[in-house]
């Protein structure tokens, strides 16, 4: 890739969705033709570790033979497969098992300075060293916000948190060095400990010598930024990162996390600023992260348009050349893939708000509680969803290779046509005391919402099984199954109220307070105020 030595992707394999071996092979085929030459599989616990049966238990973890197969296949396509794990925080999945209580500090953080922790980490690293041939290893260490503030504080008293972090980093790097690894790590904790928890800044940060001189020489810093809209932030962060390490990688965002659909327009806008900043700042290695936060519902293939755009920017292709190459590689129209994000464009095709995730927000908004009923910024013509569904279904019919992506998006739009404002319509009729209209709403709209949600669930399942392991879909079954059952329950209560069998519906009597979190709220916060 012109201007870059390593130009790759990072695929989240830890948030319910674990990409299948066959799915990844198909994905590697496509991105290698775009010019990508490395891929990281982000595996918090979704790979087998010798002697650790509960590590990735029931989570669809990769076996050693699967990793060897992927490694060999990636190499055959000119892609270096780089393990991407966690050795400090983001290990909440293992802490559900009592076996790991002894090495837990607080939240999702490992206990630093406990030899059992380092035995565990070495077991993780040695297991990977036997399966994946690359001698680059991403050790994570990001967002360890409470490092040194849990049981570590009880044991040792308050200590300099930089010293704790550096002590742990050096131990992990020593272990990695035994297996011949060059280590990469997310760098944000070095900034957060100096900037009261903040990471990104538009000012160059001068780190004290007593910090920088203790960073292991075999440790490369990875500056990640999925949010930047201003060139000066990227410039300052790149310059600051080089004060921590002579070798810096950049990680941008291929926004597929938090919901069912991608945000390719957003990714393109931000990476079109970030990639030139990397080139001008001397950063020779870049990856684009496809996180799966809050469920992994959105398939990694939906980011192909954004990945093509990023490659085109790095290579200096024109828009026309980029589109032609995308069609040649995928067999699909570039604009078709860009339309996958339409379910979130509720105010028309030209507008969306930041990383707003209205399709998921409103799908799960409870029709009686209406916690997110106030998050739409102004009146929405729900007929837009019928238009989107028609466009996306046409794309599905015309698609030679990715019909299920467009079919899932179309069925989501059809569901939202009914469900989007169902809570508001229910509340308005209840407040007006119009029992006849409420009865009609229950018998018609609620019934239709149930049917369309069931169709969406079926489409999502087909899409999931096509590219992922079957593990993890139980979460979607529980969520969407719960939504379907809740719609049935609300329909029955509306009918009982309309027929005079019950005197009131308490949830509809209580005022809905403003809660305008349109930016990827957790599913639990959408569904109910009662989930802790």
Question: Could you give a short description of this structure?
Answer:
By secondary structure, the chain is of the alpha/beta class.
Q: What is the domain total for the residues?
A: 2
According to CATH, the fold-level topology of the largest domain is TIM Barrel
User: Topology as H/E string?
Assistant: EHEHEHEHHEHHEHEHEHHHHHHHHHHH
The span between the termini is 47 Å
Q: Give me the CATH architecture of the largest domain, please.
A: Alpha-Beta Barrel
Which sheet architecture does the biggest sheet show?
8 strands, parallel
> What's the CATH C level of the largest domain?
Alpha Beta
Please bin the fraction of helical residues.
40-55%
Spatial shape: globular
Strand content range: 5-15%
Structural class by SSE content:
alpha/beta
Topology, please?
Elements (H helix, E strand, L loop, with lengths): L5 E7 L8 H14 L3 E5 L21 H13 L3 E5 L30 H15 L6 E3 L12 H6 L4 H18 L3 E5 L1 H5 L16 H4 L6 E6 L6 H11 L6 E6 L10 H18 L3 E6 L13 H12 L3 H12 L3 H5 L19 H7 L18 H16 L4 H17 L2 H11 L2 H33 L5 H26 L7 H4 L13 H5 L5
Parallel strand pairs: 1-2, 1-8, 2-3, 4-5, 5-6, 6-7, 7-8
Helix pairs in contact: 1-2, 3-5, 8-9, 9-10, 10-11, 14-15, 15-17, 16-17, 17-18
Tell me what you see in this structure.
An eight-stranded parallel beta sheet has the order 3-2-1-8-7-6-5-4. It has 532 residues and is an alpha/beta fold. It is built from 20 helices and eight strands. Helix 3 (115-129) runs parallel beside helix 5 (161-178) and helix 8 (231-241) packs across helix 9. The protein has two domains: 6-330, Alpha-Beta Barrel (TIM Barrel), CATH 3.20.20.80; 339-527, N-acetyl-b-d-glucoasminidase (Four Helix Bundle (Hemerythrin (Met), subunit A), Up-down Bundle), CATH 1.20.120. It starts with 5 loop residues before the first strand and ends in a 5-residue tail after the last helix. The longest helix is centred in the last third of the chain and has 33 residues, at 435-467.
């Amino acid at each position: 890739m012109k201007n870059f030595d390593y130009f790759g992707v990072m695929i989240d394999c830890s948030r319910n969705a674990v990409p299948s071996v066959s799915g990844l092979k198909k994905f590697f085929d496509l991105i290698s033709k775009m010019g990508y030459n490395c891929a990281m599989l982000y595996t918090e616990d979704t790979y087998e570790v010798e002697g650790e049966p509960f590590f990735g238990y029931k989570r669809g973890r990769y076996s050693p033979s699967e990793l060897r197969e992927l490694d060999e296949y990636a190499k055959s396509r000119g892609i270096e497969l780089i393990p991407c794990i966690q050795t400090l925080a983001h290990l909440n999945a293992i802490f559900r098992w009592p076996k790991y209580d002894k090495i837990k500090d607080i939240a999702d953080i490992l206990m630093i300075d406990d030899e059992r922790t380092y035995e565990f980490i070495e077991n993780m690293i040695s297991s990977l060293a036997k399966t994946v041939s690359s001698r680059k290893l991403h050790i994570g260490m990001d967002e360890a916000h409470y490092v040194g503030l849990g049981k570590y504080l009880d044991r040792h008293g308050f200590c300099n948190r930089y010293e704790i972090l550096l002590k742990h980093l050096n131990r992990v790097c020593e272990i990695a060095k035994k297996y011949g690894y060059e280590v990469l790590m997310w760098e944000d904790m070095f900034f957060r400990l100096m900037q009261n928890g903040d990471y990104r800044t538009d000012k160059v940060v001068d780190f004290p010598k007593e910090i920088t001189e203790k960073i292991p020489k075999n440790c490369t810093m990875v500056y990640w930024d999925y949010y930047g809209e201003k060139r000066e932030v990227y410039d300052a962060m790149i310059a600051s990162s080089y004060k921590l390490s002579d070798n810096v990688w950049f990680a941008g965002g291929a926004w597929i996390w938090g919901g069912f659909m991608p945000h390719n327009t957003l990714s393109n806008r931000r990476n079109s600023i970030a990639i030139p900043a990397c080139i001008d700042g001397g950063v020779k290695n870049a990856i684009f992260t496809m996180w799966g936060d809050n469920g992994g519902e959105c398939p990694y293939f939906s980011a192909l348009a954004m990945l093509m755009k990023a490659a085109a920017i790095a290579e200096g292709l024109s828009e026309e050349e980029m589109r032609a190459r995308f069609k040649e590689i995928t067999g699909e129209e570039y604009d078709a893939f860009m339309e996958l994000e339409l379910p979130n464009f509720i105010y028309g095709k030209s507008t969306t708000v930041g990383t707003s995730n209205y399709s998921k927000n409103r799908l799960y908004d409870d029709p009686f509680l209406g916690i997110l009923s106030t998050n739409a910024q102004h009146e929405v013509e729900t007929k837009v969803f019928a238009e989107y569904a028609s466009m996306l279904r046409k794309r599905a019919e015309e698609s030679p290779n990715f019909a299920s992506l467009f079919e899932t998006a179309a069925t989501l739009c059809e569901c939202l046509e009914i469900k989007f404002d169902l809570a508001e319509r229910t509340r308005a009729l209840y407040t007006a005391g119009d029992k006849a209209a409420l009865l009609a709403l229950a018998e018609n709209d609620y019934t239709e919402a149930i049917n369309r949600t069931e169709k969406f669930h079926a489409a999502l399942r087909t899409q999931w099984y096509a590219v992922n392991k079957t593990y993890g879909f139980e979460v979607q079954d529980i969520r969407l199954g719960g939504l379907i059952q809740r719609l049935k329950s609300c329909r029955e209560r509306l009918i009982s109220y309309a027929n005079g069998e019950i005197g009131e519906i308490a949830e509809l009597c209580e005022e809905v307070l403003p809660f305008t979190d349109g930016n990827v709220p957790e599913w639990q916060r959408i569904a109910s105020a009662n989930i802790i």
